[in-house]
Amino acid sequence: MTIRTTFPDTKALGSIAQSQSTIDYTATILTDRDADDPPDVTDYGFGQPVVLPMGRRGAEEVAIGVVHGTQVIDPGMGGIGPTLGADGATDQFRPSLVDEPTTLIGIALLGSATATGDSSDGDRIETPDHSIPTFAIGHGTTVYQCPEATFRTFHLVDGDLSLAYYPRLTEVAGTFGAELVGAIAERLHETTEGYDDLLDVIERKVAHQANVDRGVLQ
Q1: pLDDT of 23-46, one tens digit each?
Q2: Over pLDDT 70: what percentage of the chain?
Q3: Residue 37, phi then psi, degrees to nearest 5
Q4: DSSP character string of 166-189
Q5: What phi, psi does 216 have (nearest 5°)?
Q6: From residue 125, how far is each of 19, 25, 39, 77, 94 by CA, in Å?
Q7: Cβ–Cβ < 8 Å for 84, 46
Q8: H or E stretch including 37?
């Protein structure tokens, strides 16, 4: 089974170029030189959920993540362009190795799940796990958009909504951690029912801590 067995209609965004940590990866976005239908900027915006296979053989286990930053590199303009995302999220990437304008995205892994192998099943995954993924993501691994239904199912652990990963996520996302959690909560507000109060509490807690960290509150 390959990831395309479970996700045949999801858009490929790019490929893994490097990692900053076990849960923080950088991917290069596909261009029209790489694909007939390359992604548009609206396909990999801040907070976009992604799914990618864990390991090169088969795709039974998949990692679920979100885009936490972008970086534009133009060798003709001295290498590094404007960034959006965590401080240092992509600063280990070497612009000297890039010979054409390139867009990078930072991906924070939220956890993992087992792909069902059934594309007709709206959920497409089972046994979601919000702990740190056990296996590394290989260089060159393709990153795909994660369907909204799959992203919702990933957050339903043992029948209840869970964002157990969010303390790690705010560390990876750095300055924009609160905004990233808010973007995820907004998606879940739209795709789940009965959890608005819990999501509001999480958003307020993260926003308050961000204001304290920024010196807005003491």
Answers
A1: 999 999 999 988 999 999 999 999
A2: 85
A3: -130, 75
A4: HHHHHHHHGGGHHHHHHHHHHHHH
A5: -75, -35
A6: 25, 22, 24, 43, 35
A7: yes
A8: none
Length of the chain: 218
Q: What angle do CA 60, 65, 66 make, to 5 degrees?
A: 150
Residue type, 18: Q
Contact 27, 16 (CB under 8 A): yes
Which tokens hold the place of 2?
């390959």
128-148 b/e (C-beta count within 10 Å ≥ 16 → b) = bbbeebeeebeeebebbbbbe
Determine the pLDDT at residue 83.
Answer: 44
Per the DSSP assignment, residues forming a β-bridge with 21 are 24
Rounded CA-CA distance 178/183 in Å is 9
Three-state SS letters, 98-154:
CCCCEEEEEEEEEEEEEECCCCCCCCCEEEEECCCCCCCCCCCCEEEECCHHHHHHH
Tokens of 165: 């990963």
Q: Classify the C-alpha dihedral 92-95-100-103 as positive or negative.
A: positive
Query: Which tokens in the block code for residue 32?
Result: 């029209």
pTM of the model: 0.86
**CA count, 13 A, side-chain hemisphere, 32:** 1
Helix (H, G, I), strand (E, B) or coil at 180: helix
User: What amino acid is encoded at 6 in this protein?
Assistant: T
